[in-house]
Amino acid sequence: MKVQVYYTGKTSEQYLRTGEEIYIRRLGHYLPITFTVLPDIKQGGKLTPEQLIDREGQALLDKINPDDRLVLLDEGGSTYGSVAFAEWLERELHRPARRLVFAVGGAFGFSRQVYDRADHTISLSAMTFSHQMVRLFFAEQLYRAMTIIRNEKYHNS
């Protein structure tokens, strides 16, 4: 199964981009995975938060196929330890869907339409992180999960 990760908004800090690139490169050895930044909404700064999340949500939904499994990274989602997340991911990778799609929302989260379409939501922590930091943390957790699935040393080193 192919894995697709969609991000809303660019990462402005170089140190976060560098860290993210390390894990993206490593993940390529384990599975077909693509990371895509959705374009910023034009004149988004002039919109209300509700209008912005609606437009960001539509941009995301335009990329989702009917047979995709859509998983949102959201503070209200299910929480997993690293081993439990790896077990969950392994089950997901064996489902009949063509793509497993993860989405990281923008600063205001997701629209109601995106929540309604989602198959699952995951929270990385009870704490709140910037969407830019979540990108790095999630890439690392995906990599960690793959090493757990393959019984490699990274998780315990």
Architecture overview:
Helix content is 41%, strand content 22%. The chain is of the alpha/beta class and 157 residues long. The chain has one domain (2-150): Alpha/beta knot (3-Layer(aba) Sandwich). A five-stranded parallel β-sheet has the order 2-1-4-3-5. β1, α1 and β2 (33-38) form a beta-alpha-beta unit. α1 (14-27) packs parallel to α5 (131-149) and α3 crosses α5 (131-149). The radius of gyration is 15 Å and the shape is globular. The two termini are 28 Å apart. The mean pLDDT is 92.
List the SSEs and their pairings:
Blueprint: E1 2-8, H1 14-27, E2 33-38, H2 49-61, E3 69-79, H3 82-93, E4 99-104, H4 112-117, E5 120-123, H5 131-149
Parallel strand pairs: 1-2, 1-4, 3-4, 3-5
Helix pairs in contact: 1-5, 3-5
State the gist of this model.
By secondary structure, the chain is α/β, with parallel strands linked by helices.
CATH class: Alpha Beta
Number of strands: 5
Low-confidence stretches: none
| Number of contiguous helices | 5
Structure classification: alpha/beta
Number of domains: 1
Query: What is the residue-mean pLDDT, rounded to a whole number?
Result: 92
Pfam families: SPOUT_MTase
Keywords: Cytoplasm, Methyltransferase, rRNA processing, S-adenosyl-L-methionine, Transferase
Subunit structure: Homodimer.
Function: Specifically methylates the pseudouridine at position 1915 (m3Psi1915) in 23S rRNA.
